[in-house]
Automatic annotation (TrEMBL):
Pfam families: ABC_tran. Residues 266-296, 313-364 are annotated as: Disordered. It comes from Streptomyces qinglanensis. Keywords: ATP-binding, Nucleotide-binding, Transport. This is Phospholipid/cholesterol/gamma-HCH transport system ATP-binding protein. SMART domains: AAA. One of its GO terms (molecular function) is ATP hydrolysis activity. Residues 5-241 form the ABC transporter domain.
Length: 364
C-alpha cells in the first residue's frame, strides 16, 4: 500500500516573491489526489517540494517518518526512493531508446542483472501500452507516448508515492481520457499514493478521491473530491465554470477595481454556475482488481460527514447510499464508526496490465 504524506505549514519564496505559504494537507495512503490552480500558482514547485528537489523556508513534509525538508540528506535520499515522478514533458533522454530510458533508474540505483531489468521494463511498458515501441527514440514517437514512457520510468522502482506533473498537457481530449483511465488502472494495480497536478477539469472531475486548489499564495481547500466540486468559494466556482467573472484574471488575480466593476455588472446565467451533479468517478478497466482505496476512503469520509459543508455532505451521502451501506453520523464523543461488515469484498487475484486502448469506465 502507498505511504501517507503529511504536509504542515509549508512556505516557499524566491527572493521577495512569495510562491505560497502555510500549506497544510495530508495525502491519504493509497488514494489519488489532484491539485488544481491557475497558471503561476506554484503547483509544480509544490510537487518538487514534496520530493525534496526544492527546499521551502518553513514547514515540513513527513514521509514514513522522514522530514523531506529538514532531515539529513542521506535520509532524504533514501526516502526519495519511495517516490516516482512523472515530469510534465516526460524528461526522456533523447539519445536513448524507450527501453534504455525506462531501464535507467534500475541501472543507476539497483544491482539487478540485465535479465531482471528487462523483465521489469517490459512489465512497465505493458502497463502503459507501449509494448513494441521499446526500440524507438523519444523523437520518433508522439507526445502522448512520451508521457506514457515517462510514467513507465516513474514506476520501475516500485514507488509507493507517484507524483504526476500535468499528465494531460499537450494532449487532445481523447488521449486525455485514455490517460485518466490509465491513472485509475495503475492505482488499482499497485495501490500507490498518487498526487496529480493539472489544469484539466475532466481529469479533476473523474479521477481523484481528493482535490485541492492553490490560489493567491494559499491553499483554498483540500479534502474529499465532493468538497471542491460543490464549493461556492468564488475562485473555485470561477475555475470550475471557466468564467471570466471572478477573482482569477489573466495575470492570476484581478485588481480591486476590476472586481468592483464585476460586482456592479455580474456576468449573466451559467457562467457563474457551479455544477451540482457530480460526474461519476472512473472505475478500473474490467479484469483489473477493484481499487482498495475506494473502501478505505469510504470509511474515512464517513467519519468526516458532520464536518463537511452541506452540499458536499449530501453528495457523499448519495454516493455512499449506492453501496446500500448504513450512514452513521459521528458525534463529538463517539469513536469513528467501525468498518462496515456489509462492504463489498475487494476482488482477489493478480492485477493484469492494461494498455492505452482500454475504454474509460465510470462508476454507476
Amino acid at each position: 500500500m502507498g505511504i501517507e504524506v503529511a504536509v504542515r505549514g509549508l512556505t516557499k519564496s524566491y527572493g521577495t516573491r512569495n510562491i505560497w505559504q502555510d500549506i497544510t494537507l495530508t495525502l491519504p495512503a493509497g488514494e489519488v489526489s489532484v491539485m488544481l490552480g491557475p497558471s503561476g500558482t506554484g503547483k509544480t514547485v509544490f510537487l518538487k517540494s514534496l520530493i525534496g528537489l526544492v527546499e521551502p523556508e518553513q514547514g515540513s513534509v513527513l514521509v514514513d517518518g522522514v522530514d523531506m525538508v529538514r532531515s539529513r540528506e542521506r535520509d532524504v535520499y533514501e526516502a526519495r526512493k519511495t517516490f516516482g515522478l512523472m515530469f510534465q514533458d516526460g524528461a526522456l533522454f533523447g539519445s536513448m531508446n524507450l527501453f534504455d530510458n525506462i531501464a535507467f533508474p534500475l541501472r543507476e540505483h539497483t544491482r539487478k542483472k540485465e535479465s531482471e531489468i528487462r523483465r521489469v521494463v517490459m512489465e512497465r511498458l505493458e502497463m502503459v501500452g507501449l509494448i513494441g515501441d521499446e526500440g524507438k527514440l523519444p523523437g520518433e514517437i508522439s507526445g502522448g507516448m512520451r508521457k506514457r514512457a515517462g510514467l513507465a520510468r516513474a514506476l520501475v522502482l516500485d514507488p509507493q508515492i507517484i507524483l504526476c506533473d500535468e499528465p494531460d498537457s499537450g494532449l487532445d481530449p481523447v488521449r486525455t481520457a485514455f490517460t485518466s483511465q490509465l491513472l485509475i488502472d495503475l492505482n488499482a494495480q499497485i495501490d500507490a499514493t498518487m498526487l496529480i497536478v493539472t489544469h484539466n477539469l475532466d481529469i479533476a472531475a473523474t479521477v481523484p478521491d481528493n482535490m485541492g486548489m492553490l490560489f493567491r499564495r494559499r491553499l483554498v481547500t483540500f479534502g474529499p473530491r465532493e468538497v471542491l466540486l460543490t464549493s461556492e468559494e468564488p475562485v473555485v466556482a470561477q475555475f470550475l465554470s471557466g468564467s471570466r467573472s471572478g477573482p482569477i484574471g489573466m495575470s492570476e488575480e484581478k485588481d480591486a477595481a476590476a472586481l468592483a466593476r464585476e460586482a456592479e455588472a455580474p456576468a449573466p446565467g451559467p457562467l457563474n454556475a457551479v455544477p451540482r451533479k457530480l460526474v461519476p468517478q472512473l472505475e478500473p478497466t474490467p479484469g483489473l482488481p477493484e481499487r482498495q482505496a475506494v473502501r478505505r476512503r469510504r470509511e474515512r469520509v464517513r467519519g468526516l460527514l458532520d464536518d463537511l459543508p452541506p452540499a458536499a455532505r449530501h453528495a457523499v451521502e448519495a454516493d455512499l447510499a449506492q453501496d446500500r451501506a448504513p450512514l452513521p453520523r459521528r458525534t463529538s464523543t463517539a469513536r469513528r464508526d467501525a468498518a462496515d461488515p456489509q462492504a463489498p469484498t475487494l476482488a482477489a487475484g493478480r492485477a493484469h496490465p492494461v494498455g492505452a486502448e482500454a475504454e474509460p469506465k465510470e462508476r454507476s
